[in-house]
Amino acid sequence: MGQKITLKIGGRDYPLTAESEELEQMMRLAAVDVDKALTQFNARFPDTSLEDKLVFVAVQETVRKLYAKKKWQVLKDEVLSLDSKLASYLEGIDK
Q: Has residue 1 got a pLDDT over 90?
């Protein structure tokens, strides 16, 4: 069974369960990031509901995740290409 933790986001407490210490740390860091983004949206959109601002945060974080995933794929492709070139080069040396 996991560790019960409470995360504070937007002035509200959210009780959760973290299955490991690593996951707990990641959840706490995520809560800090979400709270910072929420603070920024609070300043920009003071008359918007908390729920709408949380949607803004979710969209922003999802875009970041998709961008990182795309960039990771580009880097992975580059590594595979370099690996192939290196293998070809080393084959040429052996002959």
A: no
> Domain range for residue 60?
3-94
Output b/e per residue, 39-62; b: 16+ Cβ within 10 A.
eebeeeeeeeeeeebbebbeeeee
**For residue 32, how many other CB atoms are within 10 A of its CB?**
13
Q: Mean pLDDT, the chain, as a whole number?
A: 95
User: Which residues, at least 6 apart from 18, have a Cβ–Cβ distance to it below 8 Å?
Assistant: 2, 3, 5, 24, 27
> Residue 3 pLDDT > 90, yes or no?
yes
Q: What is the pLDDT averaged over residues 38-55?
A: 94
User: Which DSSP letter does residue 49 get?
Assistant: -
Q: How many domains does the chain have?
A: 1
Measured in degrees and rounded to the nearest 5, phi and psi for residue 26 equal: -65, -40
Positive or negative, the Cα torsion across 78, 70, 30, 16? negative
Continuous H helices in 1-95: 21-44, 50-94
